[in-house]
Amino acid sequence: MFSRLGPTMGARLAQIAALARACSPSAAWPLLEAIPQAACRDHQPYWTLRAHLLQQQGRHSEAREACARAIGLSTDEASRQFLVRQLAALG
Q1: In degrees, to the nearest 5, what angle opens at C-alpha 11 toward C-alphas 5 and 86?
Q2: How deeply is 57 buried, as exposed, middle or buried, from its count of CB atoms within 10 A (0-12, 13-18, 19+)?
Q3: Are the CB atoms for 67 and 90 separated by under 8 Å?
Q4: Which of 33, 36, 67, 89 would you call most buried, defined as having the most Cβ atoms within 10 angstroms of its Cβ?
Q5: pLDDT tens-digit profile of 10-51?
Q6: Within 13 Å, how many C-alpha atoms sit on residue 81's CB side?
Q7: How many beta carbons lie within 10 A of that of residue 45, not counting itself?
Q8: How far is residue 48 from each of residues 1, 17, 35, 57, 68, measured CA to CA in Å?
Q9: How many CB atoms neighbour CB 16 within 10 A?
Q10: How far from each other are the two terminal CA atoms of the chain, in whole angstroms?
Q11: Whole-prediction pTM
Q12: C-alpha 26: how far from its chain's center?
């Protein structure tokens, strides 16, 4: 409902994450891909979710790239450290 009132990037990403959890990452993937690249180029949560969905789909090489990008965009040290651990787990 909130996304109809004001489709912020955060609302869109939350909706996509919920769909991925409720259905499957592959069901949510087209919605993530539909976000214009200009809107997400420097948006760290987008890259974090992208990495997560790619990892869930077994696309580990692409997941590592997305995770590395999310790390580079992180301004919060705790988030950055979490992502560094996620990247290490991806191999």
Answers
A1: 180
A2: middle
A3: yes
A4: 67
A5: 999 999 999 999 999 999 999 999 999 999 999 999 999 999
A6: 3
A7: 17
A8: 24, 11, 14, 14, 9
A9: 24
A10: 39
A11: 0.89
A12: 13
Q: What tokens were used for 8?
A: 């912020």
Q: What type of residue is 80? A: R
Nearest alpha carbon to residue 32 among 20, 21, 44: 20
Q: Which of 82, 90, 79, 81 is nearest to 56 (CA)?
A: 90
Give the Cα separation of 82 and 37 in Å (integer). 25
47 exposure class (CB count in 10 Å sphere: 0-12, 13-18, 19+): buried
In this structure, what token pair is assigned to residue 91? 């191999």
